[in-house]
Amino acid sequence: MSRLQVQASVDERDFMVDLEVDEGSTVAVLGPNGAGKSTLLGVISGLLRPDRGRVELGDRVLTDTASGAAVPPHKRSVALLAQQALLFPHLTALDNVAFAPRSAGKRRRVAREAAMRWLKAVDAVEFADRTPHQLSGGQAQRIAVARALAADPELLLLDEPMAALDVATAPAVRSLLRRVLREDGRTALIVTHDPLDVLALADRVIVVEGGRIVEDGPVRRVLTRPRSTFGARIAGTNLLGGIVEADGLATEVGVVHGLVDDDCTAGTAAAAVFLPSAVAVYTEPPHGSPRNALCVEIGELEARGATVLVRASGGLTAEITTAAAAELTLEPGATVWFVIKATEIRIHRAA
Ligand SMILES: Nc1ncnc2c1ncn2[C@@H]1O[C@H](COP(=O)(O)OP(=O)(O)OP(=O)(O)O)[C@@H](O)[C@H]1O
């Protein structure tokens, strides 16, 4: 795995980016449609030639417009995993995965053995003999992950890998990606629109807008205190980090109870995620001991038309109706209770 350095301009697309990614880290790339996310991946993978700039991976120069260097895509040791699995339709899953080692010059038997190991790693051995049209979207995407990894790339580019999957399938693929990104310490970039992907997979977030990087920071900071407009739009969600216990998630504001993902075993680092609109605000400790009543101090109030955003300590936010806010006479500095039903809180493993 290698450090990535990109400095590139594509005039026609008004794209100008300067980015460094540390060896072994995963950077989530967020941004609105047309922001330049795919352009960035295109420049790195070699599918798109910048007008000016340089791409380096480890000690290799992949692109350098000054010297004319342009390593072709298949020789970059960069694997691109797209939204659609894009498997070869006439090959079995096994042969799709074996394609990478075969192209690298491995003998057929050796390539198939390597492919089998990767199918095992993505829990897809049972699909080895199937062709792509006999696979569901999620199964095909698992094969595509195996194929990308079988090439043993120095850099993995993931372009919305979960976007085409249904809600039931996405968690399994996300958890598979977390395993391969985390355990093997791979350098990776993942384009996504989903804060859950960011949370589960990335160490760092960049926000691209208008062909420029407008925000760059650690996941937690960008998701809870975004500085860019787009960051604020995608973030806007409550996030409490902690450690999974038998009874819930131990956080700095107490134990939080919610719907816990299967892979959150006791002792793992996880985050509780809930929408500001799922929070009810009380000025007195609530009766009947609801499962989640977090005592917080109000920071500021932000009018949003029919609703008011109550920003409180710990980076927590509640969105309540203007009428409710008026009735509660909320003001900065006041102590209140944020009450959230356990069914409104999802607890996910964090990267
Ligand atoms: N083939 C192309 N030729 C010319 N301009 C293009 C081409 N592809 C994209 N663009 C332009 O380049 C800019 C960046 O597009 P890009 O596809 O990189 O955005 P994106 O962030 O990946 O968007 P999305 O989330 O919609 O995929 C946009 O203004 C787009 O219109």
From TrEMBL:
The keyword Transport applies. GO terms for molecular function: ATP binding. Keywords: ATP-binding, Molybdenum, Nucleotide-binding, Transport. InterPro entries: AAA+_ATPase, ABC_SmlMolc_Importer, ABC_transporter-like_ATP-bd, ABC_transporter-like_CS, Mo/tungstate-bd_C_term_dom, Mop_domain, P-loop_NTPase, Transp-assoc_OB_typ1. Residues 287-349 form the Mop domain. The keyword ATP-binding applies. Pfam families: ABC_tran, TOBE. Residues 1-235 form the ABC transporter domain. This is ATP-binding cassette domain-containing protein. It comes from Rhodococcus artemisiae.
